[in-house]
Design goal:
GO terms for molecular function: ATP binding. The chain is α+β, with helices and mostly antiparallel strands and 336 residues long. It has helices spanning 25-33, 75-85, 90-103, 119-131, 149-166, 177-183, 201-206, 211-216, 248-251, and strands at residues 14-18, 44-45, 48-49, 60-63, 137-141, 169-174, 186-191, 194-199, 221-229, 235-238, 243-246, 257-263, 269-271, 279-288, 292-299, 304-310, 321-325, 332-334. The longest helix is centred in the middle third of the chain and has 18 residues, at 149-166.
């Protein structure tokens, strides 16, 4: 169920609907496609109202999780099927199929059938088939979810390339935060039928406006406390364990009261004993991630703090005390 959703998606934009299962992102996609009827407002594509039009009358195509390729048809026949249904003549249809085969780099596999293709190749065929009729908008409902991790990352790069070369608006649904950050021009983060924030990947990751958005996108530390008015227009955040002065440019939109201070694990620094710091904690667990090491720490009051550093294992051991510095410019003050 959707509640007062309002969006403007630009022409030729790669726009992602991101959120947990059941948040309404697929419902919104189906409403755009015409498979769900809206009980208020308008859906417009290219300035034209879509509300009363059935799905087949909207210049939209969809790529689903299941590619639904015709097993008895070759790759080129699958790609050309939609064009044939639209009455495109043979020469024009074959030319467009060749164009799509080149776009998805499957020219050498044109005569194969789906059972002879890998998962990634089948995904490319489904994408080419959807793009062949030149839709104004292409809807993609978690099309990479069935692929293994390595192939999924490869296909993310290919999907972005295809979108840029095709020059078509893509509306992409996923619950994978990394996938959304990698692919998107802009992201809409959804929860319980609402859109909580729309922005570029950088804005969503580095400047989330709500606690849910900050917590859903990547790892983040959240500390409960109170915000007080400080001198010179800045603000003072206090908790039972620390206080930190927040510059006015980061605090001017948050009124005093109970708030959460948020900071990404990579922005916290371990400092030497005696150096200025805001938190004292003890290492509970160490996770080596290849490109980074994640220290899971806990303060004396039981607050869990994560610190991410470079890939080396050199550092404190489990049980060691650590002094942590939280740079004010890397801190966020969140409502909700």
């Amino acid at each position: 169920m959707l509640d007062a959703v309002s969006l403007v998606i630009e022409n030729n934009e790669f726009f992602t609907l991101l959120g947990p299962s059941g948040c309404g992102k697929t419902t919104l996609l189906r409403a755009i496609a015409g498979f769900e009827q809206v009980d208020g407002g308008e859906i417009r594509i290219g300035g034209r109202r879509m509300n009363e039009l059935p799905p087949y009358a909207r210049n939209i195509n969809t790529v689903f999780q299941s590619y639904a390729l015709f097993p008895h048809m070759t790759v080129e026949e699958n790609i050309g099927f939609g064009l044939e249904m639209k009455g495109v003549d043979g020469d024009a249809r074959r030319a467009r199929v060749r164009e799509m085969l080149a776009l998805v780099k499957l020219e050498q596999l044109a005569r194969r059938r789906p059972a002879e293709l890998s998962g990634g190749q089948q995904q490319r065929v489904a994408l080419a088939r959807a793009l062949a009729p030149k839709p104004e908008v292409l809807l993609l409902d978690e099309p990479l979810s069935a692929l293994d991790l390595k192939l999924r990352k490869e296909m993310q790069v290919e999907l972005k390339r295809v979108q840029q070369e095709a020059g078509i608006t893509f509306i992409f649904v996923t619950h994978d935060q990394e996938e959304a950050l990698t692919l998107s021009d802009r992201i809409a983060v959804m929860s319980a039928g609402h859109i909580l924030q729309v922005g570029t990947p950088t804005e969503i990751y580095e400047r989330p406006r709500r606690r849910f958005v900050a917590d859903f996108i990547g790892d983040i530390n959240l500390l409960a406390g109170a915000l007080e008015q400080g001198a010179n227009g800045d603000a003072l955040f206090r908790s039972d364990e620390m206080q930190i002065r927040i510059p006015c440019e980061l605090a001017d939109r948050v009124v005093p009261g109970r708030r959460h201070l948020a900071i990404r694990p990579e922005n916290i620094r371990r400092v030497a004993p005696g150096e200025a710091h805001q938190l004292q904690a003890r290492v509970e667990n160490i996770l080596y991630l290849g490109t980074a090491t994640l220290y899971q720490c806990r303060t004396g009051n039981g607050t869990r703090i994560q610190v991410r550093e470079g890939g080396s294992l050199a550092g404190p051991a489990v049980g060691d005390p650590v002094a942590l510095s939280l740079p004010p410019q890397a801190c966020l003050l969140l409502e909700g």
